[in-house]
């Protein structure tokens, strides 16, 4: 088989890139190691920047997002029993974010690809990208016990943190930057109305908590937990008790609880590889970088990578120039590092670190106090939260 671009990974970055290529008439094939049902069962991000929404619109997949998504003009930081609202709209001169689940976005992208007759090869085993350092890149895999090979012009490694693309790069050609945080997030989904009409990021002596949502009747809540914790250790009752204790009383008292239908623990890490291009293979999204979810940046960075890569691929095929492809890695990384910095700083500001000590604790309190009293500090937070320009 031959195509122009093989996309490894059918997550949001692979599907979005595939749709933008298809819309431009550029043949592409997506290969994923799991099946559609599995992909649609993953619960992840919930906050989309305007740039991400714009890219989804450009792909022609934004109809349901605009109908069902919840535009948010601000969010609350709570600490010391009080609320401090970050007024995103006011502080950024009219920008907001959209709350819409990654699972729903992925469903919209898959349905659109199916309608267009785009190829996705699910349940592919042993996916290996090769030949990308020369002129004959190709991807091999096994499907139903038969080895297959797809030759192409370019490979897009959209296969997430545990994917095959990054692993195929020779060790000496890639540099890794990593920070592991000493805690995780325990998250639940429950069909109860959100405790607040906007997100609440809570700093509390018992640990961080986040109140988010998927709709007016579905809440997504998180509490900072120990890396040794297992989901089985957290009954729904224990979760609700802990969440309530980490919120100011006026929120805790009105919180509606109910049975959860999803519960999982995610470790927190910051991770970046440089460069993001290796000959004719490009790394995109989580394959190249991971951020802790505190700044809601993971999915949005995957989208900005796609933005830079599609620009390069369109220029290659339509204008016979490789200037934008050559600039891909540097342009993407420049935005990635700013989001890595922001996610790290929000994580540092809001969580309890086991080894912080009194000095670290005082610095955190001073930082929160500064945020509440300085429009400049709040503006910097808002500007990063809504997403820096592409
Ligand atoms: P994805 O979504 O991980 O998709 C990668 C796809 O590649 C496939 N794959 C392979 N295919 C072929 N061969 C292989 N060897 C393969 N290995 C993997 C996978 O099956 C999958 O279909 O990466 P992508 O597209 O770059 O998208 C990135 C986002 O998914 C990610 O940044 C965010 O979800 C991160 N993230 C969160 N971000 C937020 O902004 N807010 C959140 O609340 C949030 N929660 C999360 C998260 C990521 C999590 N992970 C990765 C465990 C919670 C979790 C649990
Ligand atoms: C979510 O809704 O899952 C969510 C929202 C904001 C974050 C992280 C996760 O910062």
Automatic annotation (TrEMBL):
Stretches assigned to the FAD-binding domain: 2-343
Top EC class for this record: oxidoreductase
InterPro entries: FAD-bd (IPR002938), FAD/NAD-bd_sf (IPR036188), HB_mOase (IPR012733), RIFMO-like (IPR050641)
One GO MF term: 4-hydroxybenzoate 3-monooxygenase activity
A Pfam family annotated for this UniProt entry: FAD_binding_3
EC number(s) stated in the UniProt entry for this protein: 1.14.13.2
Record-linked Gene3D superfamilies: D-Amino Acid Oxidase, subunit A, domain 2, FAD/NAD(P)-binding domain
UniProt keywords, alphabetically: FAD, Flavoprotein, Oxidoreductase
Superkingdom of origin: Bacteria
Protein name: 4-hydroxybenzoate 3-monooxygenase
Organism: Rhizobium rosettiformans
